[in-house]
Amino acid sequence: MQTNTNQVHNIPAIPIFLIGFMGSGKTFLGKQLAEKLQFPFFDVDLEIEKKSNMNVNDIFQHKGEKYFRDVESGILIDWNKNGIIATGGGIVISKINREFLTKKEHKVLWLNPPWEVIRSRIINSYRPIVLERTEDELFELWNKRTLLYKECADISCDARNLECLIDAVSNDQ
Asked: Which of 113, 128, 139, 157 is the least buried, fewest Cβ under 10 Å from its Cβ?
């Protein structure tokens, strides 16, 4: 991998993985961050869809979460591109994924808005994980994963806006 540097923010062009619970803004803010830094943007869920020739909801419905997580892990472990990479909210479930995120030469940015913000973004969505759980179960899942995100993160940001992400990445260098 060739490492260039963003001239404006002096951020090396390395893989910057965005982790966080569903609804934390990984895709939305990740695209903005990539554009601002002039880095490519990748979404692991889209990579899973390409590899499986199915959308995420269909994968969960027809092949199950285990299949989805196995494909997700394979894509993550084989990752070799620089840029901003939005991961799925459950990427930290697998120990292999956590080991990858904590040992490779890249940055891991945890988008960590308060539960109330996440709740407002996901409560009426059609995500398989949301459809299968009550609001209390979603809160418990968020709370449980918080420790895993913290374990993997080089940087944490409340993910309320793009400037927060730029500052978090820029100040970590």
From this structure: 139
